[in-house]
Design brief:
250 residues; alpha/beta; Rossmann fold; six-stranded mixed beta sheet; four-stranded antiparallel beta sheet; 8 helices
């Protein structure tokens, strides 16, 4: 589904990723792990075409389409969906307004309002958030946990097929963590999207068991393996897989 070849990314004229390669298959759960500053979030930014992150070299393919020049909205139409580490608030735009527009743009059809609101209310109940969130400005006045659940409301309505989870556990208390991760697990079991998990915490894998784990150090993959790598990380940290900057930027 997703293939990245020899990708070099820079921001503010500083190279962050160098000759980065990864492939994520259809219905596969893939994890990228690494310590803070390793370049994990840069991958998320590059996949959604953040203008602050420049592709100096390399190619990004999605379902065999070269998407280097695709703007963010076109990638969203393809099925990309980012669950942010820190979802931002957008004043003046309600969840309902945004979702109706997004759905009509995606399907090129008018949205059935009665069916739309019925589904939204069911999702709110599932996520244990007030149904009033439907008409609230996006993430406005919400706690960190509420914002993550609000993003999940968008997920369940838009039904994307490629999920990017950027430090999904960030800012969640124990109860919210369970609700958020259980909901994503349920979504995966129902719709079987491909998922990229970007994290430094193996506790996410209690709910979403990756088929592959990739260790990112100094902007480059230093180790790829299966779920057993998580045990090594818990026991020894990321130092076991560390590569020097000379190895990356030679």
């Amino acid at each position: 589904m997703l293939k990245i070849e020899n990708l070099t990314i820079s921001a503010n004229k500083k190279i962050i990723l160098k000759d980065f390669n990864i492939e994520i298959k259809d219905k596969e759960i893939c994890a990228i792990m690494g310590s803070n500053g390793a370049g994990k979030s840069t991958i998320c930014k590059a996949l959604l075409n953040d203008p602050n992150y420049k592709i100096d070299k390399g190619k990004i393919y999605y379902n065999d389409k070269l998407i280097n020049d695709y703007p963010t909205e076109e990638r969203a139409k393809l099925g990309f969906f980012l669950l942010n580490q820190t979802p931002i608030a957008i004043s003046g735009v309600t969840n309902s307004e945004m979702l109706r527009l997004a759905l009509s743009t995606k399907t090129n059809e008018a949205v059935d309002i009665l069916k739309f609101h019925k589904e939204l209310k069911e999702i709110c109940q599932k996520l244990k958030i007030p149904k009033e969130f439907i008409h609230r400005d996006i993430n406005s006045g919400m706690s960190g946990g509420e914002r993550k659940k609000n993003e999940l409301m968008h997920l369940w309505m838009l039904k994307p097929n490629f999920l990017i989870l950027d430090e999904i556990d960030s800012g969640l208390d124990v109860d919210s963590f369970k609700i958020v991760l259980s909901s994503i697990k349920e979504y995966y079991e129902k719709y079987k999207p491909s998922i990229l998990i970007v994290t430094h915490n193996t506790k996410v894998f209690k709910y979403l068991k990756p088929h592959t784990i990739n260790i990112l150090q100094n902007g480059k993959i230093s180790k790829t393996g299966d779920i057993s790598l998580a045990k090594t990380i818990d026991e020894s940290g990321f130092e076991t897989f560390k590569i020097s900057e000379n190895e990356v930027y030679e």
